[in-house]
Write a structure and sequence with these properties.
The protein is an alpha+beta fold. Helices cover 20% and strands 43% of the residues. It has helices spanning 2-14, 21-31, 99-102, 105-114, and strands at 34-43, 46-55, 59-64, 69-75, 78-83, 89-93, 118-120, 124-131, 134-141, 147-153, 159-169. The protein has an eleven-stranded antiparallel sheet with strand order 6-5-4-3-2-1-11-10-9-8-7, with no helix packed on it. A hairpin with a 5-residue loop joins strand 9 (134-141) and strand 10 (147-153). Helix 2 runs antiparallel to helix 4. The chain is globular. The N and C termini lie far apart (72 Å).
Length: 188
């Protein structure tokens, strides 16, 4: 009888149904290799939208609906914003942007493990991360615990709010999309 009680106690502590929302978020993140999603981004009251693919660690490919900003790509080291203006692009070191942290799944998991989520309107769970003078807010849906967006300041100190929808996890991805343009084009 004592063995049965010990086994039941053991399972009651380790069953996923008894896990906290934070533990479930971490478990989901650990199983996620990539995300495909639609996004709506607001920077200084200007809205942009499009589609993105994130592949961990630190790779992202976004196509904007707005023709003036065609693509955003990171290969894990650099971030490139390619415009439709004669194929020009702007290149930034990824480690100088908040995306350095948002695209690093292991970093996010380690920070979430340290933090307690803030409940927002009984709809969202928010984790607030402070790193290298960056404040990064990450939001998860309280019902299904999926990532739904983030809030950061961009490299020009503009508040950037990104909502994501139609999220698909662990899709087959062509890794060529994370290839950066050649250096013979104009860049900053």
């Amino acid at each position: 009888m004592l063995k049965v009680i010990i086994i039941l106690l053991f399972f009651s502590f380790y069953l996923p149904s008894n896990s906290s929302p934070k533990d479930k978020i971490i478990s989901q993140m650990k199983l996620t290799n990539n995300l495909s999603f639609n996004f709506l981004q607001t920077i200084n009251d200007k809205n942009e939208d499009g589609k993105c693919i994130i592949e961990y660690p630190k790779k992202i490919f976004c196509e904007y609906s707005n023709p003036s900003k065609k693509k955003l790509v990171s290969n894990g080291k650099s971030l490139v914003i390619k415009t439709s203006n004669k194929g020009s692009y702007y290149r930034y070191p990824l480690n100088k942007t908040p995306l350095e942290f948002l695209l690093d799944k292991e970093y996010l998991i380690s920070k979430i493990e340290e933090l307690e989520p803030r409940d927002i309107d009984n709809k969202y769970l928010n984790f607030k991360i402070f790193e290298n003078n960056n404040e990064i807010n990450i939001f998860f849906d309280k019902k299904d615990l999926n990532l739904i967006g983030w809030q950061t300041e961009d490299i020009y100190q503009n508040l950037s709010i990104t909502f994501i929808s139609s999220v698909k996890k662990n899709q087959e991805i062509d890794s060529k999309i994370f290839k950066l343009p050649k250096n013979n084009q104009s860049s900053n």
